[in-house]
Amino acid sequence: MSDAAQILARLRDEPRQLDALIELGLDQVLARPLAELVDHQWLATAVTDGLRASVRSAEFEPWLTQRVEQAFARVDGIDDAGAALGERVPVTLLGPLEQALGRDYRPERELVRALLDHPSTRTILREILQANLLEFGKRMRSMMPDATKLPGGGLGGGRGGGLASRLAGVAKGVASAVGGELERQLEPKVKTFVDDILGVTIDMMVDRVSSEGFAPEFARWRIDVLHAVLAQPINRLVAERHKYPPADLAADAAAILRAVAGWRELGERIEAVLAELIREHGQVSAREFLDGSGLEDAWRPQLHRALSDQAHAIAASDAFAAWLTQLVDG
Fold first, then answer.
1. CA-to-CA distance for 41 and 36, rounded, in angstroms?
2. Which of 48, 66, 281, 330 is the most exposed place for a label (fewest CB within 10 A)?
3. What is residue 233's DSSP assignment?
């Protein structure tokens, strides 16, 4: 038996040999400083070049469209889609979510203004205020007593009744004309008034949202939004995805990725971020970095099992046997 055949037989017949190799590899990785594990210059170049090569491919967008269509098809195939979203969420998750959303949070005033004070926001508020003020004016007019109802008007047949009826008709016509003219004059006055107070309204909104006193109400609003979303039927949420066709989503995602890939400073920025991480943690080993987190103890057995399964599958393949024979026997 050749040396290659003997090594191959031991790797295949004695699983502990491969397992020992995997343990050795894991220990080596965990003991090395992070700066030795990650070459930030190489990684930045690899990410940048890989992204640019991908988005330049004519097949990239069709491939992306296909992936999106497959993902949406899985969403459309959800069982019991008539149930509320909250019924598919673990009950134990609701408490921590409410606690997180209910935290005392007061956003910075200028940040709130940056989010709220835009021409589009002012247009929406202007339309809402104008429509409601005009409707209020119409309702107030309808609540005024009808001055055309004169005493004796409409009483049967007499001369007095006829005169009162004619006077009521004239008064009604005059009131209608005056009322219509008032409405026509009211609309531009309302628009002027709304334009004058719009800035004040925005300032009030900004002050309210960023104020310390509003924080409890803001927290309750976030929790209310959570409950409202969880109460929605799943099929209603799924139906929203049809408003964004897969081809459009893929085209938009591809355009965004192409724009990022076309950024001249992309590689430099990625390298700068990685370099900062290496400067901060580079001299610490992976094991020291994870110390105290419990992650190594929790995930190492699962990682070992996954690597072991793959290693044994590779060792059992004909391709590995041919490679090992070529390596050992030359």
1. 12
2. 330
3. B
